[in-house]
Amino acid sequence: MSGIPSPDLSDRTPVHRHHVDGFGEVRLVPVDPDADLDLLYAWVTEERAKFWGMNGYTREEVHETYTFLDGLTTHHAFLAVLGGRPAALFQTYEPEADPLGECYDVQPGDHGVHLLIGPAQGGQPVRHFSSTLIVALIDYILTDPGRRRIVVEPDARNERAIERLRRVGFVLGPEIDKPEKRARLAFLERADAEAAVKAFSHR
Q1: How far apart are alpha carbons 15 and 151 in whole angstroms?
Q2: Is-contact 84 8, C-beta < 8 A?
Q3: Could you count the other beta carbons within 10 Å of the beta carbon of residue 20?
Q4: Out of the domains of life, which is the source (predicted)?
Q5: pLDDT of residue 1
Q6: Does the model's pTM come out above 0.85?
């Protein structure tokens, strides 16, 4: 969408790199709440991001949210970078240290994620763009052998996101009620996550 900032992040030091044949290298860089505020505010308050739950936030509230996350050891925020430009916002968390942990039976090795695909930057649509980004992020999660299962909880009304997860291999669980939304749990066991990374990296 025009007007959405798309800064060059090629000089940021990544915490992870993942190459996909025919797609390129996806780099994960930690969010900088100060330097990335314009981008974060534009992305999370767009109408298209209504299921992210931050529509109506002010710049100050967005900054406070990501500054708070930046100070936690259990929650982390990253930008997925493709071709030097931000392509997605990616957040990870430990369910037992998150309100989600009160909504389902947390298992040892569970690791939670949130994903917001960024707006299109122009050009021709890329086949499997969203799925490939998701798999690149899964590859990062798998770098820790203690992570045995990936947990997601998209808004139950977000049919597009749920279908993306199913295509990658997530198994849908029950719907749950959280204070801010009715969510649909979905799970990806480590063995299935490893198979997804292999399959989507060599398409």
Answers
A1: 21
A2: yes
A3: 20
A4: Bacteria
A5: 45
A6: yes
